[in-house]
From TrEMBL:
Residues 50-189 form the AAA+ ATPase domain. The keyword Transmembrane does not apply. Homohexamer. The hexameric complex has a two-ring architecture resembling a top hat that caps the 20S proteasome core at one or both ends. Upon ATP-binding, the C-terminus of PAN interacts with the alpha-rings of the proteasome core by binding to the intersubunit pockets. GO terms for molecular function: ATP binding; ATP hydrolysis activity. The chain holds residues 119 to 388 of 398 of the full protein. ATPase which is responsible for recognizing, binding, unfolding and translocation of substrate proteins into the archaeal 20S proteasome core particle. Is essential for opening the gate of the 20S proteasome via an interaction with its C-terminus, thereby allowing substrate entry and access to the site of proteolysis. Thus, the C-termini of the proteasomal ATPase function like a 'key in a lock' to induce gate opening and therefore regulate proteolysis. The keyword DNA-binding does not apply. Consists of three main regions, an N-terminal coiled-coil domain that may assist in substrate recognition, an interdomain involved in PAN hexamerization, and a C-terminal ATPase domain of the AAA type. One of its GO terms (cellular component) is cytoplasm. Keywords: ATP-binding, Chaperone, Coiled coil, Cytoplasm, Nucleotide-binding, Proteasome. Belongs to the AAA ATPase family. GO terms for biological process: proteasomal protein catabolic process; protein unfolding. The lineage of its organism: Archaea, Thermoproteota, Thermoprotei, Desulfurococcales, Desulfurococcaceae. This is Proteasome-activating nucleotidase.
């Protein structure tokens, strides 16, 4: 069967309104990615070069992919994405070719954003490149660097890469003219968690006793993806009770369940 090695979305559904918190990160992405794609002439007139690419880094499930899609939508750019770990594990021997195809597609579809998730899988610093697998990963990285070096800052292609492991990245990828703008996407703070609850309960009927501020206080340390899981679980609790509206108790049970799962994953089983 044919397995897709990259994904192309002509017009992503996600908007900035679907993102809770991350206001400063959105502002920065608009300035360094959206604006130059929409208005390269402005940069020519002022005489500055925007970055060709940015790196989003931070813990899993906090909105990196969401942000990249929203920027593509607002810039009216095509969204072309690849996953670093898949290039290494699923498409063995084809990494360099896929990278080449992705950028050729991006030039054709420009304005376009190339999103590289889990870039650490192809751009980790290596102590030795002895095995053939490592040489293959190295070839994929060389191809990526060549592609980034091969377009100009005002060509209507931008790279957004994402990683949870910025510490392992090969500095070559972060050099000036490459992914030289780093934007941290941290775990949400209390206000951020409140806004993420708001986004995901938008289409929900909430009972009067539900207090999203209180839920935000009780979910310290959780990611946006985990908050979404809590909202979904709370909805299931309502369905199990034969209700179409969601109560405080539905949420409380959901918080316990998701927090417990997280502790199991971390190996802190009590
Ligand atoms: P990963 O490193 O696991 O790829 P990521 O940072 O790219 O994580 P996303 O894929 O953007 O995370 O988030 C996963 C899901 O969690 C999103 O589809 C969304 O439903 C929810 N989510 C995460 N962060 C936010 C946020 N800031 N606002 C609203 N929803 C969020």
């Amino acid at each position: 069967p044919y397995v897709q090695s990259f994904e192309v979305i002509e017009r992503p559904e996600v908007t900035y309104n679907d993102i809770g918190g991350l206001k400063e990160q959105i502002r920065e992405l608009r300035e360094v990615v959206e604006l130059p794609l929409k208005n390269p002439d402005l940069f020519r007139e002022v005489g500055i070069e925007p970055p060709k690419g940015v790196l989003l880094y931070g813990p899993p499930g906090c909105g990196k992919t969401l942000l990249a899609k929203a920027v593509a939508r607002e810039a009216e750019a095509a969204f072309i994405s690849i996953v670093g770990s898949e290039l290494v594990q699923k498409f063995i021997g084809e990494g360099a070719r896929i990278v080449k195809e992705v950028f050729s597609m991006a030039r054709k579809k420009a304005p376009a954003i190339v999103f590289i998730d889990e870039i650490d899988a192809i751009a980790a610093k290596r102590i030795d490149i002895g095995t053939s697998g490592e040489r293959e990963v190295q070839r994929t990285l060389m191809q990526l660097l060549a592609e980034i070096d091969g377009f100009r800052p005002l060509d209507r292609v931008k790279v957004i890469a994402a990683t949870n492991r910025i510490d392992v990245l090969d500095p070559a990828i972060l050099r000036p003219g490459r992914l030289d703008r780093l934007i941290e996407i941290p775990l949400p703070d209390k206000q951020g968690r409140y806004e993420i609850f708001k986004v995901h309960t938008r289409r929900m009927k909430l009972a009067d006793d539900v207090d999203l501020h209180e839920l935000a206080s009780k979910t310290e340390g959780l990611s946006g993806a985990e908050i979404k899981a809590i909202v979904t679980e709370a909805g299931y609790n309502a369905i199990r009770s034969g209700r179409k509206f969601v109560t405080r108790e539905d949420f409380e049970l959901a918080v316990k369940k998701i927090a417990a799962k997280k502790n199991v994953r971390r190996g802190i089983v009590e």
